[in-house]
Specification:
The complex is a heterotrimer of chains A (315), B (444) and C (780). By secondary structure, chain A is of the alpha/beta class. Chain A is built from 11 helices and 5 strands; from the N terminus they run αβαβααβαββαααααα. Chain B contains 9 helices and 27 strands. Classes of the chains: A alpha/beta (315), B alpha+beta (444), C mainly alpha (780).
Chain lengths: 315, 444, 780
């Protein structure tokens, strides 16, 4: 008769205690793993327990090599950096927001539960009670990757969910500055010896030619669109007219280069072979043949990109 | 503009049609009378209307002729629906059809009853909230010999629609709670001590009392209720919802309030009809105009910071001699000069000596764009006035700016000195002797 | 000396020159003919109609100019654009194009040739393409000689990279801008060569014309200073450079500031600071030079030099400082996005959303330039071989142009001329070498002949005599000069005049000559065929009328004009039409109705407002529409015939732009499925399904399939069985192939209900009983 009553009294206390312990354990977890909680299915439920006075941002990723998720690996450093920045804020505010990472291999069930087919995904869970209670506590916000995998936009957007803005500061790129500095130094020291090279017009000619070749073979496209060197299945020609892989840039650039080189051969070198007519003749035929051949290769390559193209040369 | 023109034509038609006073929007009235009601039971009301010059056409709810609307043109200017108990109507009196004719500027006068009918469903669309079926209004005060459902109601004195000093009227029927709709025009409210309950020796009274204890939730009681309520649509067609048809009947009209005092029903009925049929509180915009302060003809565009004059002519319909007369009585008319948001909002004041003309003078904002003169006058019971004139406000022309700025003198000085210097230099250069010039040539 | 083939010897030099000039003239006439003719495919295939989007505005503006005169045009305030903000047209456009065609029109009227203004606008681009060919000829002539010039003219005449922007009917600024570009460059080179202030001034005048005609004038504004700077660094400062640059800059800048749209930019924005800086630098250097030539004390010189350098540094610091203080505006987004390529997508989605601002993949390079693209580097190298001042210009142009063309598709246009020029140089050098009949005489072998240009230092002095472009390096350029002046070693003269004295290099035999020449001719023919094919297939469709090839031949899809004319004839003059900004100019031009936003995207907020209205639900959108007095909403829908350029495909940009202004009301992720892809079928996200754009696109779409499976042929997705419903809008018009759908915005309900309930009532739905509003606070 009494027991259930007691239990009845004990219940709220128990819940209270439980909640306390949840939060504390989370804090502990966060502490021991340097600001980012490494989640699995259980700890995930713990962190996203329906009644919580803390907010959490969770990165769903698949860092394992076998998953072959290159964006995941690309995004992870930014995530870590931001989380580290957060772990520097004073304790009382810090413990109201948790950074966590759930790897696909640790929490497959969670991925299925949330119906995530792609990674990386970042979900922000709002607190359901406490001073920062939000109405849509049960529906996590999805981070918008449209601004790329960089850390700045991540920190900036997450700051609107954390109690205080994340004190993220982009790290100074020592490597870059170092290299620049050393290069400048080396240049300054060796200027005496390098001067003839810099003075020779042909250095500059080579430079100019290479740059214009690379540019006219779609290098900037691959840079800006971040297209891979080759497709996942190893094919190196991207389908479609307004699309290409990194490999194509090299191939096309070298074809262009060879073609113009052979023209230069015909113009500059061949006439100089006034020593022996035969050598000159062979040279001229050789280069003409090369031009014909490479050009037809180029055209056929173009036919692959542009199906409707009606013309073709010898092949 | 066009609206007022149309109204003008209609009023002219009215003039041509008859000699007596009448409505500003035509005088043909269709009366839909349910068979249980006899015409001569409402003789006072109908005769009163006919005396005013209305031509009444009668029709039973079920039969199909005369049709109300033909080829999308309504054949009657006003419709009286005295069919409070009818459950099924002909097709062209369905609620949707009624709303449709209303949108064609046909005015309605509708009587309800405690029964649930298509009309009581229609009332909901006008945000009138009727009590559940079979719950008429009843009141035990003042003590009297009539049934509790037959209630004397004093006519409010301050209502512009009703003639002041009308004696109390007898009412019997269903009350309406009023939703929060600015288009509603309460004409007659229920007495404070009245409430809606079912009739047989008001068994529901306890329910009402309990509800009152619980604090007003869903309570059809007290003077918050209306028994006769007007409604004016956005385009100024008018509807009157009367809680009971007896209000218009001869019986109540003849019935005495107290010894020797006849009830005001006749007067009240005619007043409500007069309002519903666009006889009084009818305004219209005759014309609007705008021009620069020191000009008279309107520009097709104004420049920023111009001083603009806007004026508007308003006239009011006078039922007595059935004519439109300029009206300067509006004290709270105002003009907006808006682009997205009002940039200027100023009062339109009547011009002394020019009846019906209101005018405002203001400076155009320092902001180019497509602006609108907007006059939007909405007052309970009155016709809604709305006029919007679009006019672009443009930046100054290329030669509209001041030519010489005192601030620019450094630049002027610089330009002048440079050109003078150039002249001097070339003069010296040309004047210089050959040897020098040759030398300079060589150095190149 | 031996000859490969005999030449007629009994020709007098006069005859030779006469025939030469005659041939040149004929060739030139033919080139112009080809240039114009190949741009008429559009007119032949379709009709004499204005193309695409921007041209429609230019056309409209030109009509105003022609009818109202120039001053009215200058003060033209267009109240129908950007309703209700309006647009000050006179101050926000480059009037050069309209002015040009206006002048032509008035001239033709004056001599009583009644030509419709539309035809002038349509034919302007082809006409100017002939002029472009001519100016390219002049330019290349300065680089090499007439033969190269003719080749270059022929190339630029028919090269697709230029045709793409100048077919008949594409009445856009580029139509005349390229001619102005080339001619300004030609004049600059001329001025530089002769050091004449006259040509400098002419260059400035045409620069002014260019500024008035195209925003791309910034290219010239930076190319010429770059050239001057390079010359300076190479220690090639001459008085000719000084005169040419100073006259060009001073007059050109002052003139360009007369264009209302440019105003004070030349002295207030970073794009123009380079030119200013080089100007200042030149003054300093010139001053130093002058004093040098008179004073001759070593220390004083050094002092002076230090002074000059100091002045330069101070100038630079001043410019930077002014920039920080905000006196000089930092680089505009459009310009900056050329360097930081991620910039636009992040901060100015409107710019990133334009298709022609995308980076260029190599196929489009090949498509637009064909075999010139690999002759181009060869030509650049040849320019290096004989490094005169003007060649340096070509080299810089090649570098800059190829970079820009790589970053943005539309800048292919600026690359094309230099490609043509240097390709022409390369090809004509080949032909020179192989047509030249004289054979080298078999010499006694010498050591120093096998290696290419190294043997050339021997005849350097002769070269310096022959042309003045390379004086001994003046030490004015200081240390940098020391470093670079090695490049100034005078190149060998490959011109036959030089080599004729004692023929060392050359080709033996006729067969080799034939092989190479035939090869070249074959390529040229292939080039011509290619250009014709590309022009007729890719670049001649006026995107207003679409063509589709199917079983029964070519079929024209004319939905746009159908819809626009419907608007013109069935709606009141003042009916405001809302659409995405791509169609603003066309609506204004063809339907002649006020629009909310159009293709000159000057007001991001207004565009974002439209984006918000399109991407939010009806209830949210309706107040916005009412507030902007919108009467009709126009959407482009390709789902029925598979027209991929429709609004659903552009929808994400609308969302993004709206999100930029209202981040907490519109969020892009909400429009994706939980799995993160963009769908319109059953799985489409609720935000997507409720968005106005989705509803308007697919309203009654499923009915078309009569119960069958409704399929969107652009997205290749099966639509839901029950289509969306509309309460606040009603369908007004849908064109034949459903490409254009127009909806009318309903008026407010006369009974003061919201339109949803009103619709429910009209469909006879019962509304649930309500209870009286609470008037008292509850006692409890």
């Amino acid at each position: 008769m009494l027991l259930p009553l007691l239990a009845l009294f004990a219940l709220p206390a128990a819940i209270f205690a439980a909640k306390e312990s949840t939060h504390d354990s989370l804090v502990k977890l966060a502490a021991q793993s340097g600001g980012i909680i490494k989640l699995n299915a259980q700890t995930y439920d713990l962190l996203t327990s329906p009644t919580r006075d803390w907010s959490a941002s969770i990165q769903f990723t698949a860092l394992d090599k076998r998953r072959r998720c290159s964006p995941c690996r690309e995004f992870d450093p930014a995530w870590t950096a931001v989380a580290k920045a957060w772990s520097t804020v004073p304790k009382e505010t810090r413990d109201n927001h948790f950074f966590a990472t759930l790897d696909f291999d640790d929490g497959t069930t969670v991925f299925q539960k949330l119906g995530l087919q792609s990674a990386p995904v970042v979900l922000i869970f709002h607190p359901s009670e406490g001073s920062r209670r939000s109405a849509n506590a049960q529906t996590p916000t999805t981070y918008d990757f449209s601004s790329g995998f960089d850390a700045e936009p991540l920190a900036e957007q997450l700051s609107s969910f954390t109690p205080i803005p994340i004190p993220y500061r982009a790290p100074v790129n020592w490597a870059l500055w170092g290299t620049v500095g050393t290069l400048a130094l080396v240049f300054g020291l060796t200027i005496r010896f390098l001067a003839p090279i810099f003075r020779s017009r042909w250095t500059w000619a080579a430079l100019t030619t290479i740059i214009s070749l690379v540019m006219t073979s779609g290098y900037m496209f691959t840079r800006i669109r971040g297209t891979p060197m080759t497709a996942a299945d190893g094919s190196w020609i991207a389908p479609g007219f307004q699309n290409q892989y990194g490999q194509e840039t090299t191939v096309v650039a070298s074809i262009y280069g060879l073609l113009s080189a052979s023209f230069l051969m015909l113009t500059l070198v061949a006439p100089l072979q006034s020593g022996s007519p035969n050598r000159q003749r062979t040279q001229i035929y050789l280069w003409s043949g090369v031009i014909m051949l490479l050009f037809s290769v180029l055209v056929s390559l173009f036919r692959v990109k542009n199906r409707g193209y009606p013309f073709k040369l010898i092949l | 503009m066009l609206r007022s023109f149309g109204a003008l034509c209609l009023s002219l038609l009215g003039l041509a049609a008859l000699t007596q006073a009448g409505s500003s929007s035509g005088n043909s009235v269709l009366v839909v009378l349910q068979p249980s009601l006899k015409r001569d039971a409402f003789s006072l009301f109908f005769d009163g209307l006919e005396k005013k010059g209305y031509s009444l056409t009668f029709r039973a709810p079920k039969d199909d002729t005369p049709v109300i609307i033909e080829h999308d043109v309504p054949l009657f200017d006003h419709i009286i629906l005295f069919a409070p108990d009818t459950k099924s109507f002909a097709k062209d009196i369905s609620p949707q059809a009624l709303v449709n004719v209303l949108n064609h500027k046909t005015n309605l006068l509708i009587a309800l009853s405690p029964k649930q009918t298509p009309l009581s469903l229609l009332a909901a669309e006008f945000s009138l909230i009727l009590p559940p079926p079979g719950m008429p209004l009843l009141s035990h005060f003042p003590p009297r010999d009539t049934a509790p459902t037959v209630i004397p109601i004093t006519v409010p004195a301050d209502n512009a629609v009703l003639t002041p000093g009308t004696p109390p009227v007898w009412f019997s029927g269903v009350p309406q709670a009023l939703g929060a709709n600015p288009l509603l025009v309460p004409l007659l409210r229920a007495p404070p001590e009245s409430f809606a309950a079912d009739t047989d020796k008001d068994a529901g009274a306890e329910a009402v009392v309990d509800a009152a204890e619980k604090g007003g939730e869903g309570l059809w009681a007290g003077s918050a209720l209306g028994v006769v309520t007007g409604f004016q649509t956005r385009d100024s067609a008018r509807v009157v919802w009367a809680g009971g048809v007896e209000l218009f009947g001869d019986e109540f009209a003849k019935k005495e309030i107290e010894k020797g005092v006849k009830s005001g029903n006749t007067q009240f009925a005619l007043d409500t009809a007069a309002w519903a049929f666009q006889e009084n509180l009818v305004l219209r915009i005759d014309k609007t105009g705008h021009h620069l302060a020191n000009e008279t003809t309107p520009r097709e565009h104004y420049t920023i910071n111009d001083l603009i004059v806007y004026d508007i002519a308003i006239s009011k319909y006078n039922a007595a001699e059935d004519a439109w007369a300029p009206y300067s009585g509006l004290t709270d008319l105002q003009l907006d000069f808006t682009m997205l948001d009002p940039h200027v909002r100023t009062a339109l004041v009547p011009v002394a000596g020019a009846p019906g003309i209101y005018s405002a003078t203001f400076r155009a904002p320092d902001r180019h764009g497509v602006f609108k003169f907007v006059v939007d006058y909405k007052r309970r019971g009155w016709t809604f006035l709305h006029s919007s004139t679009t006019v672009p406000v443009i930046p100054p022309r290329h030669d509209g700016y001041p030519r010489f700025l005192s601030a620019a003198w450094p630049y002027y000085a610089g330009a002048i000195s440079t050109s003078v210097g150039f002249l001097l230099f070339s003069a010296l250069w040309l004047a210089g002797d050959d040897r020098e010039t040759k030398k300079t040539k060589k150095t190149e | 000396m031996p000859r490969a083939y005999p030449l007629p010897t009994d020709l007098s030099p006069a005859t030779v020159t006469n025939t030469k000039s005659l041939v040149r003239i004929v060739a030139f006439a033919l080139i112009s003919g080809a240039a114009i003719a190949s741009r008429l495919f559009a007119v032949i295939n379709f009709e004499s109609i204005i193309h695409e989007f921007d041209p429609w505005f230019n056309y409209r503006a030109t009509r105003v100019l022609a009818s109202k005169g120039f001053y009215e045009f200058w003060n033209w305030f267009d109240p129908t654009a950007w309703y209700p903000l309006g647009r000050v047209v006179g101050g926000t456009i480059y009037p050069g194009l309209m002015a040009t065609s206006g002048v032509i029109y008035n001239f033709l009227q004056a001599i009583h040739i009644p030509v419709d203004i539309r035809n002038i606008c349509v034919m302007l681009a082809p006409g100017f393409s002939a002029l472009t060919a001519w100016s390219t000829y002049m330019f290349t002539k300065e680089m090499k000689d007439e033969s190269a010039g003719l080749l270059a003219a022929a190339f630029i005449g028919i090269v697709p990279g230029y045709i793409s922007r100048s077919v008949a009917g594409s009445y856009d600024n580029e139509a005349i801008a390229i001619f102005l570009l080339m001619f300004t460059f030609f004049l600059w080179i001329k001025a530089l060569k002769q050091g004449s202030a006259l040509f400098g001034t002419l260059a400035a005048v045409f620069y002014f014309y260019m500024v008035a005609a195209w925003g791309g004038y910034a290219f010239i504004t930076n190319m010429i200073p770059l050239h001057a700077l390079a010359l300076l660094l190479m220690g090639r400062f001459t008085n000719r450079l000084y005169v040419a640059y100073s006259s060009w800059y001073a007059i050109g800048t002052l003139a360009s500031m007369q264009v209302p749209f440019v105003g004070f930019q030349p002295v207030r924005t970073s794009e123009h600071m380079g030119a200013l800086g080089v100007f200042g630098l030149l003054q300093i250097v010139a001053f130093v030079q002058l004093v040098r030539s008179h004073v001759s004390s070593k220390q004083f010189n050094n002092l002076l030099f230090a002074l000059a350098v100091g002045a330069g540094v101070v100038g630079t610091v001043a410019i930077v400082g002014l920039t920080y203080m905000g006196w000089i505006a930092p680089w505009t987004g459009r310009f900056y996005s050329l360097w930081d390529t991620g910039y636009a997508k992040k901060y100015i989605p409107i710019i990133a959303s334009v298709s022609e601002h995308q980076p260029t993949a190599w196929p489009s390079f090949f498509m637009d330039l064909h075999f010139l693209i690999f002759l181009f580097p060869a030509g650049v190298v040849l320019c290096f071989r004989e490094l005169r001042d003007e060649h340096i210009f070509v080299i810089i142009y090649a570098l800059v142009g190829s970079y820009f063309a790589g970053v943005m598709v539309r800048l292919m246009l600026t690359l094309t001329p230099v490609v043509c020029i240097s390709a022409a140089i390369a090809l004509s050098t080949v032909l020179d070498t192989y047509i030249d009949p004289s054979e080298p005489d078999l010499p006694v072998p010498e050591a120093d002949e096998t290696s290419g240009p190294s043997e050339t230092t021997t005849d350097a002095p002769k070269k310096t005599k022959k042309d003045k472009t390379a004086p001994p390096p003046t030490s004015s350029g200081a240390s940098v000069t020391e470093l670079l002046s090695g490049m100034v070693v005078t190149p060998p003269s490959t011109s036959k005049k030089g080599a004729a004295k004692e023929k060392k290099t050359g080709i033996f035999g006729t067969d080799t000559r034939l092989a190479v020449i035939l090869n070249a001719i074959g390529m040229l023919m292939f080039f011509v065929v290619h250009c014709t094919w590309v022009t007729s297939n890719a670049y001649s469709s006026p995107s207003v009328v679409l063509a589709s090839h199917n079983a029964d031949g070519l079929q024209l899809i004319d939905d746009f004009r159908e819809a626009y004319y419907w608007l013109r004839q069935n709606t009141p003059e003042t009916a405001v039409v809302m659409s995405w900004w791509d169609y603003g100019y066309q609506i204004a031009g063809m339907a002649d109705r006020p629009t909310l936003v159009d293709n000159n995207t000057w007001n991001n907020t207004h565009i974002a407002t439209v984006g918000k209205a399109m991407s939010s639900s009806e209830e949210v959108a309706y107040p916005i529409l009412r507030k902007h007095d919108v009467d009709y909403v126009l959407v482009i829908f390709g789902g029925l015939i598979g027209y991929s350029g429709d609004d659903i495909n552009k929808f994400l940009w609308m969302v993004r732009i709206a999100q930029g202004v209202w981040p907490d009301e519109i969020q892009e992720p909400k429009y994706f499925t939980p799995s993160g892809d963009y769908r319109v079928d059953e799985q489409a996200s609720p935000a997507m399904r409720n968005s106005l754009m989705y509803k308007m696109s697919y309203y009654r779409f499923h009915e078309l399939f009569g119960g069958g499976q409704a399929t969107d042929r652009v997205r290749n997705q099966v639509m839901p069985k029950t289509g969306p419903t509309l309460d606040y809008l009603e369908e007004a018009f849908t064109s034949e192939n459903w490409i254009v759908r127009i909806y009318q915005v309903k008026k407010e309900d006369p009974l003061g209900r919201d339109l949803k309930t009103a619709n429910a009532f009209d469909q006879g739905k019962k509304r649930k009983r309500t209870r009286p509003p609470v008037r008292r606070r509850s006692a409890a």
